[in-house]
Every structure is written in structure tokens, then in C-alpha cells.
Design brief:
By secondary structure, the protein is α/β, with parallel strands linked by helices. The chain is 20% helix and 33% strand. The radius of gyration is 23 Å and the shape is globular.
């Protein structure tokens, strides 16, 4: 009977230790935009020496500086939903999370890009982005 109590106590201690060491599952990204911000946002991930993102509950918290550009050593691999603070949801356009991986599938960096503003501002900004000569029709490059 004493042996059973010891086994039970040891099992209980292992369960408590396992639950205490379990990582919290991050389920969303909270992006805090500067008041009145409008323009392109780029969050560069996996930057050596940059600070890690903070967490609050089950969310990564990203506090953007006034220029909309941020570097972090954190890499968000999952395609997590984003919640924006200080902005109307309908003013966020082109949200994309891209990850760079090694040939072995190990994440080494990435970025989150989007635009904040009106639809017209977004479309104007997209029209002015650099378009590769390689992809442009009639650029003189032909595949044979």
C-alpha cells in the first residue's frame, strides 16, 4: 500500500510538472497601429539581435512604431489571425505572412506585410510597386 502511494505521488508530481512546463498555444497576433497611421507596414521576422515579440495571454503583441516598420527575432510560422488596434478593419489591405525556410524546412526568417488606408490609397500604392522586367509582358525576354 505504501508503494502504491509513492507511485501515485510520483505520477501526480510528473503530471503537475508537465502541465506547468507546457507552452501556451499562441492563437492570434494583436497589431497595435500608431494613432492615425496610414501607409505600408512591414514586420521583418527572424532578425538576429532584434527583440522578441511580447505575448499577452494567447497572443503575440506587435506595437508598431510611427513609420510602420518593425524587426523582431521571433518567427511566426503559423498563419495566425490578426487583430488590429487603433484602426478600422476595413482599412487594412493585402495582409500577407511569408516565411523563408531552409531546404530542411527550418524557418529562418519572414515578413508580415500589409497596407493601412483607403482602398484607393492601397490600389495607388500597389500600382507604384516595382514590377519585375522578367514578369512584364513584352519585356524582350523570351522563353524558347
Amino acid at each position: 500500500m505504501i508503494r502504491h502511494r509513492r507511485v501515485f505521488a510520483l505520477s501526480l508530481a510528473l503530471v503537475i510538472l508537465a502541465v506547468g512546463c507546457e507552452k501556451r498555444k499562441i492563437t492570434e497576433i494583436v497589431i497595435k497601429l500608431p494613432d492615425g497611421f496610414s501607409g505600408q507596414v512591414q514586420i521583418q521576422m527572424g532578425v538576429v539581435g532584434a527583440p522578441k515579440l511580447t505575448t499577452s495571454g494567447q497572443a503575440y503583441v506587435v506595437s508598431l512604431p510611427s513609420d510602420g516598420h518593425l524587426q523582431t527575432s521571433t518567427i511566426i510560422e503559423d498563419n495566425l489571425p490578426a487583430r488590429f488596434e487603433n484602426s478600422r478593419t476595413e482599412s487594412v489591405w493585402g495582409y500577407a505572412n511569408s516565411i523563408s525556410k531552409t531546404g530542411d524546412g527550418i524557418p529562418v526568417g519572414g515578413s508580415i506585410d500589409f497596407f493601412v488606408g483607403t482602398k484607393q490609397q492601397y490600389e495607388t500604392q500597389e500600382a507604384h510597386k516595382h514590377k519585375s522586367e522578367f514578369l512584364r509582358p513584352n519585356s524582350g525576354f523570351r522563353v524558347q
